[in-house]
Amino acid sequence: MINKRALVTAVAASTLAMTGFAQAEVKVGFLGGFTGGIESLTPPIFEGAQLAVEQINEQGGILDGQTLVMPSGDTTCSDASAASNAADRMVNSENVTAIVGALCTGATIAAANNAAIPGGVLMVSPASTAPAVSELDDNDLVFRTVPSDAFQGEILAKLLLEKGIDAVAVTYVNNDYGQGLSDAFSAAFEAGGGEITENLAHEDNRADYRSELGSLSVSGVDTLVVLAYADTSGQTVLRQAYESGMFTQYVGADGMVGDSLIEAIGADVLDGMIATRPGSPDLPGTDIFIEAAEAADLDPSAVFAAQAYDAAFLIALAIEQNGSAEREGLSEALRSVSSAPGEVILPGEWEQAVELIAAGTEINYEGASGSHEFDENGDVPGVVVEMAVEDGTFTSKGQVDL
User: Is 339 left (phi over 0), alpha (psi -120 to 50) or beta?
Assistant: First the structure.
């Protein structure tokens, strides 16, 4: 007969061991558009965040040696229900301490309003650029490591005017991202003396945009500005614009900067296409990240990869500063570890940061994509770079200043 007392003791020990194992992990979720409009852009963004996680674990882990893990969820980019469900799983099933993401603005807003804010979960997006993010009633829980499109729109307008392009037609995907970017671009372009001959919203994920293109081309202007996504509407609009012969110059922004766009339409067709995207300033952390990313077989120039690395590293620093995996107090800790004054911590310097925090020394993270001095809305100043399609790929032409 089995000794019941021994069995109870064994079960209790097993339960304790399992509980200890569970407690040995700290979870930070990742929400991204693994399918949908930016599905080709999302993997390197996720890899950027995972690089930070790997470095932290290699240097002793978090909170006295616990392992940092990163479960992921798919928002599809365009489906608010999918974003809300993925966030709900992170907040209430995975019980994450914080979230890197989401990426598309609509997904970030849906995830924040329906799950993260009610659950008191900090979110740091590396890619949600629409001005609408700044307007969230978020209890100081939603931050981003990428500048607002209020800035990128100005830069894109300035860039085109400097190139002598003073008349354009604009079409934008009909969501927070497209609308916000179009508004910022249009205001700056017209203020600088440019003319927008037509400005039309279009719905994502449609097979035919020829009607919109007909309206956009009536004036005979040569330049078409497409503010959309490389893997869905942006790609279809450009293909059909080329097939119709309506435009000779194409322009886009960060959502269009992916080599999948070139592969789908053709390098000869898009040769000379102009675009902008958030970039990284000339700071020590930038070069450190580039070296680490290349060693990990990650393209350091991938759109939003550096911003995702910084989002993950900053969240981890905030958790360490907060002293536990609890959600309460994390936004205050994030502001503390990201702001001057403090001992400067660069990308990869996790072990040093842990020692300083343990000693009660203030730290100031200077990251791969910027210094990340968050304002009252959780926004950061940033850098925008010019991109151009050359030799079959998007090539950086350097930083553009106002």
Answer: beta
Domain that holds residue 92: 25-147+282-365
258 to each of 51, 100, 305, how far by Cα in Å? 21, 21, 13
Same domain, 129 and 77: yes
Element (H, E) at 72: strand 72-74
Q: E strands along 210-360, which residues?
A: 223-227, 249-252, 274-279, 343-345
Cis peptide before 102 (omega within 30 of 0): yes
Element (H, E) at 157: helix 149-162
- 159 and 185 housed in the same domain: yes
pLDDT tens digit sequence for 301-339? 999 999 999 999 999 999 999 999 999 999 999 999 999
pTM comes to 0.88
Task: Give the integer Cα–Cα distance in Å for 269 and 114.
Answer: 42
270 part of a folded domain: yes
Residue 198, SS3? strand
Rounded to whole angstroms, the Cα distance separating 136 from 152 reads 20
Work out how many domains the chain is built from and give that number. Answer: 2
Quick one: 218 and 162 in the same domain?
A: yes
Given a contact cutoff of 8 angstroms between Cβ atoms, the answer to whether 109 and 321 are in contact is no
Q: What is the pLDDT of residues 72-117, one digit of tens each?
A: 999 999 899 999 999 999 999 999 999 999 999 999 999 999 999 9
